[in-house]
Amino acid sequence: MKRGWFASSWLLLVAVLFTGGLVTDGASQELTQGSIRRQVKTVQDIVREQEQAIVMVQSESFQGTGFFVRPDGILLTAYHVIKGSRRLTITLCDKTAYQDVQILAVDPEKDLAVLQLKHVRIPHFPVVTLGDSDQVTKGEEVIAIGNPLGLSCTVSTGIISAIRGDKALALFQTTAAASPGNSGGPLFNLYAFVIGILT
């Protein structure tokens, strides 16, 4: 697993991404990552397929977004969303809420937190697929799904307008609209791979 940093016009994005070569085929508009091969998708397809993996993360003093990366309830969010919290609530897009949440790991410097829902009888959560930040290009179209201002499962689109930094700390500037509450949410490319986290 590798990490890189991103920045939007209003918020900072951080990627927690799987390595593994991405191969593009311009003729068929396909992308392969490891054993996963995908076609370019429409925004509507990505929202329909991915939004159930997106959650609202609420602490005593902050509200943000997260997303499942494993079906047993492990999810990623931004550290500042849960910083100093003694009680967290995770709410799915269908309004199901969970309050038994464990903080597995945090990285304050990179503004990352890994959480897990506990005592779920039969874990079955939908998950996103993590992408590779090394393959992101200027002008690439992106999609953000999150909970801006508490409005659950809201979608915005834009492009990567600039790439800054280096491989250890890559900064992506995007035109995708983001507001307080989007923090911790995923940024998708058109192949439905997560290429960044809004923070």
Secondary-structure arrangement, i.e. CATH architecture of the largest domain: Beta Barrel
**Low confidence ranges:** 1-28
User: What structural class is derived from the secondary structure elements?
Assistant: mainly beta
- What order do the SSEs take from the amino end to the carboxyl end, as H and E? EEEEEHEEEHEEEEEEEEEE
Task: Give the proportion of residues in helices.
Answer: under 10%
By CATH reckoning, the class of the largest domain would read: Mainly Beta
Q: Give the N-to-C terminal Cα separation.
A: 19 Å
Total strand segments: 18
Overall number of domains: 2
Radius of gyration: 16 Å
Average pLDDT figure:
82
Quick rundown:
The protein has 199 residues and is mainly beta. The chain is built from two helices and 18 strands. The strands form three sheets. Strands 1, 2, 13, 14, 15, 16, 17 and 18 form an eight-stranded mixed beta sheet that branches.
Tell me what the structure shows:
The protein is mainly β. The protein has two domains: 2-52 and 127-198, Trypsin-like serine proteases (Thrombin, subunit H, Beta Barrel); 54-117, Trypsin-like serine proteases (Thrombin, subunit H, Beta Barrel). It contains two helices and 18 strands. The strands form three sheets. Strands 1, 2, 13, 14, 15, 16, 17 and 18 form an eight-stranded mixed β-sheet that branches. It has a seven-stranded antiparallel β-sheet with strand order 10-9-6-7-8-12-11. Strands 3-4-5 form a three-stranded antiparallel β-sheet, with no helix packed on it. The chain starts with a strand and ends with a strand. Residues 1-28 have low confidence and may be disordered.
